[in-house]
Sequence to fold (520 residues):
Amino acid sequence: MSKKLRDSWGSRLGIIMAVAGSAVGLGNFLRFPVQAANNGGGAFMIPYFIALLLVGIPLMWVEWSIGRYGGGFGHSSAPGVFNSLWKKNRFIKYFGVIGIFGPLVIMIYYTYIESWTLAYSFFSLSQKYSGILDQASMQSFLRGFQGLEKNQYFTSIAPAYTFFLITFIINIVVLNYGIRGGIERFCRIAVPTLFIFGIILLIRVFTFGVLDPSKMDWNVFNGLGYLWNPDFSQLLNAKVWLAATGQIFFTLSVGIGVILTYASYLKKGDDVALSGLTAVSMNEIAEVVLGASIIIPAAFIFFGPVAIGDVAASGAFNLGFVTMPLIIGQMPLPEVFGFLWFGLLFLAGVTSSVSLAQPAIAFLEDEFNISRKKSVAMFGAVTFLLCNAAIFFLGKGVVDELDFWGGTFCLVLFATIEVILFGWIFGINKAWEEVHHGADMRIPGIYKYIIKYVTPIFLLVVLGAWFFQEWLPIIRMDNVSLANRPYVMATRAGLCLIFLLLAIMVKIAWGKRKKGKKTL
Ligand code: PFF
Fold:
């Protein structure tokens, strides 16, 4: 059987930009500030940095290493990579299915939200929302756009659907050009551009001054203080620790099989230690410096210390798509700043969503020997259909459900499996050597113990705490309204079906390979 040439990265900067692009996303600019504001402000940053050091950074190294290792055996998705790490075990490849399933589930809703940012970039440029001056009307604008109600702004979901189609096609076009020609080329331009947009917005927020001389304390410093002043009593709350750990996973894109797929296109001698750390650092700058300095301080300047609590509690979507347009509407040059804000979110979104697609595409290419273009087309057709569930049942709790299973549960589960696989089954000594193969830096020795003991224990504790606190309420759908329960049940059934189909595909792929070996 002729092995086709594997795709690869064109340069080291290219893969760093691609991994940073995957990590820097809507999570940095919308999810993070809201999580921090609602979970103890400055006190949130303590569990956040602890989780970064004990879970985020080690997992980044683990995923880069096992990805590059599996790539050496011609595998770019988790079933094959896991199988290469533990050849004797027949079942481990099925655990790898989570590394295709999780990203696919996130992709289903993430691409739709991403398309809102494209739509709002246009609405900013065309001043479609510029006459709207109050929270309730801006909220109606958003709900009308999402198809949740018919009103004076929108009478159907058609505009949202059109922007979704455009966004989806952009993703598919980038993917169609492959790793080097598509993802790398796109990220090399998009990532620096979004940083520039972010810096301009940060400067804008920092130079606001005060809007009303009678309210001198409504300023950027107090806005930053609102986010950063710690409320230490929150540290005793398990919820805060879970939220911080969840944010680290989500923001770094680790623990789900995406980074592993990107790293599989490296060459054996390529560095992973320094490159992985560089990508983490870029994400943290985008999150802690830019993400924290735009949306919450701006909202504080406009709404003041009393109302900000409600604004922050209204959630990431409200802040991003209701509060920010209102604020921007009151600035000079609202078209420009609106475009910068939503353009920033859009670029951050696309560089993340293409990474969510790649594991499934790589799975089709490697394990079924299907050409890249055909794999992209097959993946595109299936995902497109699935996205419709997020679009048409947005108000029925479907997106929250997808976010819980794909964006929270699968992350922690997959991370636990991969770190145990690497540190214990593959063996920490071999693992340590693997991480340092071709490395441009030496990782502090303490991380050998962290990867072997601390990260898995941390993750098992988080999983255990969840299990005890949340399992029953989640199964019983305690937090879902009665009207939404049928939709949530249907989503769960659909997810089980997708998982099962992927597992069957793994079985077929390996069955074929075995047969192929016998006839050789
Ligand atoms: N890291 C992305 C963000 O912060 O928006 C989201 C994400 C992308 C999560 C890719 C997981 C993933 F595999």
Summary: The pocket of 4-fluoro-L-phenylalanine is lined by residues 22-23, 25-28, 103, 106, 250-251, 253, 256, 258, 352, 355-356 (CB under 6 Å). The mean pLDDT is 94. The domain at 12-278+290-519 is CATH 1.10.4160 (Hydantoin permease).
